[in-house]
Each structure stands twice: as structure tokens, then as C-alpha cells.
Amino acid sequence: MYRHRSYAQVLYGHFNDYFKAMQDLNVIARKRGWPESSIWSPVVGTGNEVVTEEDYPDLATFGKVGDAFQADAEAMKIIRSTSTWVVQGSVRNELFQEMNEPVA
After folding, report:
1. Is residue 102 part of a domain?
2. What does the alpha-carbon distance between residue 72 and residue 91 come to, in Å, rounded to a whole number?
3. Which of 20, 29, 80, 102 has the fewest CB atoms within 10 Å, i.e. is most exposed?
């Protein structure tokens, strides 16, 4: 399994706007059969940060969903709308691979 994690620092006063946009993206994900994001906010650390996570069974699915997302006008309209609420340069992504066995 692979877990995608995305971080974004949201401008003060716009946390709920960003949160709502992430919920709207989950509605689209549900309709399209894509993994939905869990939405997190750190208890300590960077202020007004939002973390989203999705799980994928394999890299091929991660790539397929990513391509479909970028080609989806409705999803891209929402993600572009968030750009005015995010601190420029704060967005970063991580991709984790679940380890079930030791490596050779």
C-alpha cells in the first residue's frame, strides 16, 4: 500500500474556506471512485497547517488517479480556488510505501 500525504499552510482567516474545499474534493473523489482524503491539522507545529492523506493499493493506481484528477475540470477548479488561501511555497507532498517484510 502507498500513502500520499500533502501539507499546506493556510493564510489566517481562511482555514474554513480551505477545509470546505477539501470536503468538496472528497465529494468529487467519491463520485469518481478515487480514494477520499482524510483531513488533519497538527496539534503542535506549523500554525494553520492542513494535512490530507489518501491510501492507494499500488503505484499504478496512484498514477492513474493523479492523471484523472489533473484532467478533471471540476476537481481542478476547486484545487485552483485554494491558491489564494495558501501560503506560497508551503505546499509539500510525501509518498510512503508500507513495509510488510524486511528488505533483501
Report:
1. no
2. 21
3. 102
How far is it, in rounded angstroms, from Cα 28 to Cα 37?
11
Please report the pLDDT score of residue 56 as a whole number: 98
Express each pLDDT in 25-68 by its tens digit. 999 999 999 999 999 999 999 999 999 999 999 999 999 999 99
What is this structure's pTM?
0.90
Into how many domains does the chain fold?
A: 1
Q: How many other CB atoms are there within 10 angstroms of residue 30's CB atom?
A: 11
Does residue 57 fall inside a structural domain? yes
Gap between the Cα atoms of 14 and 74, Å rounded: 21
Average pLDDT of the residues in 75-101: 96
Average pLDDT over residues 65-83: 97
Domain ranges, residue 18: 2-97
Residue 104 lies in a domain: no
Position 7, amino acid: Y
Provide the 10 A C-beta neighbour count for residue 72. Answer: 16
Rounded CA-CA distance 35/80 in Å is 20
